[in-house]
Amino acid sequence: MIGGEVIGDGNVVITGICGIKEAEEGDITFLANPKYLPLMQHTKASAIIASSDVKESPRPMIRTENPSLAFAKMVQLMAPNEIRHPRGIHPTVVIGKGVTLGKEVAIEPYAVIDDHAVIGDGTILYMGVYVGHHTRIGEGCLIYPHVTIRERVTVGDRVIIHSGSVIGSDGFGFSTVKGVHHKIPQIGTVIIEDDVEIGANVTIDRARFDKTWIKKGTKIDNLVQIAHNVVVGENSVIVSQTGISGSTEIGNNVILAGQSGIVGHITIGDNAVIAAQAGVTKSVPANTCVSGYPAKPHIQAKRMNAALQRLPELLKTIARLQKRIEELEIRLNEQTPWQEQHKKAG
After folding, report:
1. Residues known to be catalytic
2. Do 49 and 101 reside in the same domain of the chain?
């Protein structure tokens, strides 16, 4: 089922599935991170899914190339998803003029579909969803309650958007004249490509002129802010409370960890990793890991942080040295008159 290799007793009966710390007899669990290897000695699980480089285990083991993915498949097999999605279109749904609904579209109560919107085959809109005029949503999408997708937005196929998110809100653009902030119209759009997942309470602003663009396969956690004209590459991961300022370009397979902040008009290269709470103020090359504020290469940032942790001890050392210097200066001053008299006598 998961394409693994059985090591040990293959006749063990598995009746449940659980994490390695919580597992009981009869459960199968998994170990993906090498630093948790000691837990294998203490778990009560009857079997363990582990990576192919784990050679020994006190329990029967299934070795796989990707234990996390294998465990996810086991969860689907042993604990099927009980969520029941709606069917049909509720009579309270408001549908505007010229709307196109695909086959087997399901729409829950009080959703609003504005004029000339297009909803693809098999897409599900939950309660209270708003779809703006001339917006296009692809096939097989899942839009949870109270999501707002504003006008002229394009959403690809198999996109999941969780509750409370707003796609296509105005970009934050103002011109300040004599202390008064004048709104700059945001007339661009947002494009969400296929297989993107967007968490709860995410805001993705429309572009000022062209497009804010989230490319295929990218996964966005809850509470993320993506500003106008941002481009996010394919298969990137953006973790909770990250903020990306306007016109920044994020490459493919990038990881933006929690609470990272990205200044505007810079580029984050492919495969880069931005560590949690990093403040990125300039472009980051591809295949680079940065951390800290302002963000620096991770090894350099760790050294700086280690030095900072030693600062109280270093201050005490400096104080001791200063005191020692003062004592030496006093002793030198006391010896000077004797030296002068010795020279005169000579």
Report:
1. 228
2. no
